[in-house]
Design a protein that fits this description.
Blueprint lengths: L3 H21 L6 H12 L2 H14 L14 H14 L5 H39 L5 H10 L1 H18 L1 H11 L4 H25 L6 H31 L12 H22 L7 H14 L11
Helix pairs in contact: 1-2, 1-7, 2-3, 2-4, 3-4, 3-5, 3-9, 4-5, 4-7, 5-6, 5-7, 5-9, 10-11
Length: 308
């Protein structure tokens, strides 16, 4: 059962995280940040981080342009973490596919509603500016009032779901572990494969065809180190079983170290591009023709270096 103080804290976080996303950018508004906060509040940090990281990977290639609404994976992470840690029989993978993803999709509609509500304060600001004597204090207040619809669009659904939806979620979990076990197993598999979907979407927009060598290199290095250190750990476990005095511990290469290798290759690639691209003076007409030619030759759907 979710305690009242947990509902209160998660509701407050849901109302604040959207403001963080719009103005502060502390990264606590991301799915990983939501998993961290929700995991701490619910007393199960590993589950929160697992769900948050899975949702973060799922939305890797999902972006918005021009202020468009997108799926709210952060709110989905909050509810999935809360119910996964309190509902009996609800695994994190099932919570991802049956709670986090549907909630993230539904929240698009509430995001649009919050944007519509903000137009009320925008019109009030326009009216204040059109007056002969501008009331700057009133303008400032209405700008701040615009944060209210954003917060309520996240806080209210989270509060309602946590306060009144636990019984429904428990019934769904019982059904997925009972007569609809086949569906529950399917949702578990789907939840485990969603991060791969995020990678696929991301690779669709990256210039993979142009830099396929780096993709192959990164995959090979990651696999090589994983197999190497797994073998060392197995060897150390065997030696420890035979010789009780063997206390050495073999740790695998962390993902951060592999990421640093990728960063090093990216820096080298960037330097090579900078060196091989002299910048002679060009006329406006020739520059425009070159840009048009470049846009035609670019692979369809890929975001090239110049566009970044």
């Amino acid at each position: 059962m979710i305690a009242w103080w947990q509902i209160l804290l998660l509701t407050l976080y849901a109302g604040l995280e959207i403001l963080d996303e719009l103005q502060i950018y502390s990264s606590l508004n991301t799915p990983v940040g939501a998993g961290l906060i929700a995991g701490l509040i619910m007393g199960d940090l590993p589950t929160g981080l697992f769900i948050g990281a899975s949702m973060q990977l799922m939305v890797l290639g999902v972006g918005t342009f021009g202020g468009a609404s997108r799926i709210d994976a952060t709110t989905g992470t909050v509810l999935a973490t809360a119910f996964s840690t309190t509902v009996k029989g609800m695994t994190p993978q099932t919570a991802i596919s049956s709670i986090a993803v549907p909630v993230a999709a539904i929240m698009v509609e509430l995001d649009v509603l919050a944007r519509f509500a903000n137009t009320y304060f925008s019109h009030r600001i326009d009216h204040l500016i059109d007056q002969d004597k501008i009331n700057y204090k009133a303008v400032e207040r209405n700008v701040l009032y615009g944060a209210i619809p954003w917060s309520l669009s996240r806080a209210i659904p989270v509060f309602i779901a946590l306060a009144f939806g636990q019984g429904l979620v428990q019934s769904i979990a019982n059904a997925l572990n009972g007569e609809f076990l086949w569906l529950g197993q399917g949702l578990t598999v789907a939840g485990a494969t969603l991060p791969a979907v995020g990678f696929a979407i991301l690779l669709r927009y990256l210039p993979v065809k142009k830099h396929v060598a780096y993709l192959i290199l990164g995959f090979t290095i990651t696999t090589l180190f994983s197999v190497l250190f797994t073998g060392l750990q197995t060897l150390g476990t065997g030696l420890a079983a035979v010789n009780k005095g063997f206390t050495s511990i073999f740790n695998g290469l962390p993902m951060l170290a592999i990421a640093m290798l990728g960063l090093a290759f990216a820096i080298l690639h960037y330097k090579n591009i900078s060196i091989s691209r002299p910048a002679p003076a060009k006329s406006a007409e020739s520059a425009g023709n070159e840009e048009a030619s470049s846009s035609v030759n670019n692979d369809e759907g890929e975001i090239t270096d110049d566009e970044l």
